[in-house]
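Data deposition worksheet. Section B asks for the primary sequence of the deposited chain exactly as it was used as input, without tags or linkers unless they were present during the calculation. Section C holds the resulting structure in token form. Section D is free text for depositor observations; keep each observation to a single sentence. Incomplete worksheets are returned to the depositor.
Section A, Depositor: J.P.
Section B:
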Amino acid sequence: MTRTGVRAPFALRCGALLIDYILLITLVVLGTLFARMLGGGARAAGTSAETAAVVLAIVVALLNFAVLPGLTGFTLGKWAAGLRIQRVGGGEPGMLRAMLRHFIGYPLSLVTLGLGFLLAAVTVQGRGLHDMIAGTVVVREGSF
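Section C:
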């Protein structure tokens, strides 16, 4: 199925990414708070609660940044913001492309002092370095 769409506004993309990372940070913070509530006498239980929170955050990150967008084109943040990730020619990105986009492309976009992300604000297609690496584009949902 081929779909095209209107490029997603940069500010909306930033908001979607913020939602995604707030979710992950919340898991780690709640796990840390829970571990601290277990107190000094239960230090081993506290440490395992912190470890469980980090493991849960990693699992949620894999689901949210690889599986969900690979199958549906959405992360939780992009879904909330009404955005979709798709291949440049249309269609779902697939899990390998989604993993390439997020786990390789995002760090490379960040290493360039954030300029890889800013490309999405200035290019005609609205694609950041991570999108160019993965062959994806972010569009507004319902605009294809």
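Section D:
The CA atoms of residues 10 and 121 lie 5 Å apart.
Helices lie at 10-38, 43-72, 76-81, 95-111, 115-122, 129-134.
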